[in-house]
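Hi U.,

Before I forget, here's the chain from the pilot set. I'm dumping it here mostly so it's searchable later in email.
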Amino acid sequence: MGMTARYALILITGIAIGIGASLDHTALAKRSEKKIEPLPLEDLRTFTEVFNRIKSDYVEDVEDKQLLKNAVQGMLTNLDPHSSFLDQESYKEMRIGTEGEFGGLGIEVTMDDGFVKVVSPIEDTPAERAGLKAGDLIIRLNDTAVKGMSLSDAVKHMRGKVGTRITLTVAREGEGKPLEFTLVRAVIKIQSVKSRMLEPGYGYTRVTAFQANSAKALVSAISNLKKEAKGDLKGLILDLRNNPGGVLPAAVSISDAFLKSGLIVYTEGRASDSKLRYSATPNDILNGAPMVVLVNGGSASASEIVAGALQDHNRAIILGTKTFGKGSVQTILPMSRGTALKLTTARYFTPKGRSIQATGIVPDIISEQATLTRTENIKRLSEADLSGHLSNGNNPGKEGTSKDGNKDANSNAADEDFQLGEALNLLKGINVFKQG
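Structure:
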């Protein structure tokens, strides 16, 4: 894996966390030296004239510092939803967030038509426990309307002292009236990788966010699954649903863990040092065992890099619903007095040259989440129950007993999580086909 150095933090979620920090960071390196065109003097005169008019005629006195800060924020937020100015507090919290612990609600957000849109609630946080969902539009914070706020202002409203309450009013598709959620701010601690064995030989890993140590944690989790399977891991489900992204090296390293060769992702931007390429090293931690990757509309950025790379290399089957479509790279450019710019500097592309920006990853198998309702467990009549039925010539005395004793081993997984049940059945089918 090669990467040009840069004295800045390169981000790939770029989705502000509406709680306290941004889950991103990537590489340090040298800023490119570009020829800067002369400043447009006439436009600057207009700016100065407007500034002076506000100072002299606005209904209330406004400090110069606040006016200039608003001007900078407006300059950035009108570029795209992910570029912004980070004051000292925001910059500090962003860096803390990349380490996996910060204060707030536990929700990834972006701007959508003047409202704050939920990209994804983070697992095991106040936002998830309250019932917020990807796609929700936050229209009010306590008694303050969101319309007209900048994203950074909305984020500041959602921040606060741990243990304090905030009420979010949300517009949700399919609901006739706005919903209200009261959340208690908390210290958010993210365990980025979770795993378990679903059935003998079939493992499950969930990555909730891409942090600096996520790849190492994933490798360790899969190693433990292999031990539990006594070395016979027949297949793996990698769950990236509602994963809003994170640091670029983690996305590259996790993709690399399952690939033996080839391009993982590349980025393109105007600056020469924003043109980066990342390639796989010769190692597949699963030794070719089949994989299914679960995604949905809350899977963004780094999640889309992993899903896109594994899909393009035919290394995994992608199952679920179309992903968020966040395919741009943000670079954190440190500035004076502990502040920084979060600036969109490039787009990233899958190995086959697909841009995910505003389109997302389309799964190989579309599977909407659903809840199964099982009928009563009534014993159905079979041939073995008929009076005078012929005996089984191969196994006398064992008629009517299925291979697994009539037990549906996948029933619990399917009942609790339909998409997970579908993924498990798919892995089983692949193995049956290979054995045949």
